[in-house]
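Minutes, project check-in
Item: structure for the 191-residue chain
Input as provided by the requester:
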Amino acid sequence: MPELPAVAAWRHVDSRVGFEVLFVHPEADGYRFRGHSTAVEDGEAWSVRYEISVDASWATRRAQVVAESRRGAAELRLERDAAGGWRVDDLPTPALDSLLDVDLEASAFTNALPVQRLGLAAGESAAAPAVYVRAPGLEIERLEQRYTRLDDDGERSRYDYESPSFDFRAELVYDEFGLVLDYPGIAVRIA
């Protein structure tokens, strides 16, 4: 895939009103992503700021997430060690061990992580369970999900995305950089 753009942005649609902006920082052995998402959902305004580091294979190494809402502020630190074990706020969390991705409820961007990491060819499918971080309270859980790559035209790729945990299925469209362009009911890329 071509080099990622330095900045990307999404507008939340349908499920909430808001905006997400992402800043991409290439590193010698992966990427560091810094983003901020703000929204109003079910009458509640919230914001989530995140920093996620991935290695050269796009597996998440660490994530720091800070959220704010009328309920107050919350902060969460996630870190995956070389053996695949996760620590949440410095505490071992075996229920998350072997997961390679972090998926933020507040972010359309994080759906790029498994797509980049898996590198599926058209017609291929793979499970991609992730550490799921809710917004705005930052509760965590294991999220079962599956990506099936459909056809593409060289500039856009389509994936059948399934999340049995939420009884959710949608066709996601990605650009040539592997970033989500259209996540039906969630967000559309605007920059």
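Outcome recorded: The CA atoms of residues 67 and 73 lie 6 Å apart.
No further action items on this chain.
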